[in-house]
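yo

u said u wanted the structure for the complex thing, so here. seqs first:
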Amino acid sequence: MSTPDIIDTLAGIKPGSALDAIRARRLQARDNAQKSYLSLFEPIDAGDFSLLERAAVAAFVTGLHGESPVATFYRDKLAASAGGAALLEAIEAEIARGKTSGPYGSFPAGPLSVENTAGLIYRVSAASKSVLGARLVAAFEHAHLLVFRPRDAASTDMKALLAAGWSNTGIVTFSQLVAFLSFQVRVVSGLRTLAAANA
Amino acid sequence: MSATVNPPVVFTQDELGWVSWIEPLPEAELTERHFAGLVDRARAKSEYFRLLVRDPEVLEARTKTDKDIFYNVADGLPRAERELAAAATSRYNGCIYCASVHARFASTYSKRREDVQKLLDEGVSADLGERWNAVVKASAALASTPIAFGPDNIAELRRAGLDDAEIVDVINGASFFNWANRLMLSLGEPSK
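structre next:
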């Protein structure tokens, strides 16, 4: 594959290392995590979710997870995207406003209600709204929900995205992108932790 | 976008259904590109997969990642403990549907149905013995945001007898369910 493996790059896994050998034993998982990345960020058709929107959501989502090589990678990717540099400042401000600890939220009413945990219900600031536009405002608010309190998601959240101009197909790709990044940032963090424990 | 009748309100090992909040593709509209995305043609019968197949390339890559992480058991962690990592992550994030599927698999492969039920009933702090406790604790630490997985989790997994290849399987299995949970929780809801 021409593009270097993103997880290996971000986790600092060198060819020939012990972790490289372990990852080679799950080659299909490794190759398809890479294909997921490529289908999300170099798609055949970006008609329902533009490349700029993908880069903006990725910078926001990975930034919410805290400073890491993954967050730096997607911030740089946004900066390099057409129209991305103009969004950086607002996105940095929204990351700072949106940072909290998860998962939290509510369970369906019943015996699990005793486990309900309150936390930040994030909304984009008035100042950032005009910079980001209606589609990204809705996307950021939904992405924050998915990152920190996925169990709070409700059918009304889908209606909010549709109302902001997202298509059904766009919502699927957007949900995959946020969920995929939730996976990728954890694999990278886990592998880096394991490598450091062996160093 | 209809509300589900009688949604489950507790974690269970029973078989549940799942209904979408937005429109899946109609089966009659699926093309060869979509069938490639579904990987298994039989998935055309599933509302969940007919929804995700709106982006066939992502679905195909995701499905193949999933299958290798969980089913490629030529070496590494036994299947039961990969399923345990998936169930623990789902319990912690609050995905009743994913937890039901993977708790059931964990029970089938481990023959420890009561311990699996204890995880569902009590949550990730349930005492399931040293080895399972280490897997569950590592899964919850990985699922936390900011990620709380650290050297203590590695040390605990090693004390419980896991080697590095097995620890990578825990990392992959738990991380993958942070992907799966967010799709199942946000695009629809479980039904009984």
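Chain B has a mean pLDDT of 96. The longest strand of chain B covers residues 17-20.
cya
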